[in-house]
Amino acid sequence: MGCxxxxxxxxxxxxxxxxxxxxxxxxxxxxxxxxEWHS
Length: 39
Fold this sequence. Notes:
39 residues; mainly alpha
């Protein structure tokens, strides 16, 4: 009858140290910039 919708909550899991290291290696961004971008 009515429109029902469910909202799925998103669970954020922070970046691992390995992911940060890879991003630092492959990009010009600092760890601080990467963490700010992904927070």
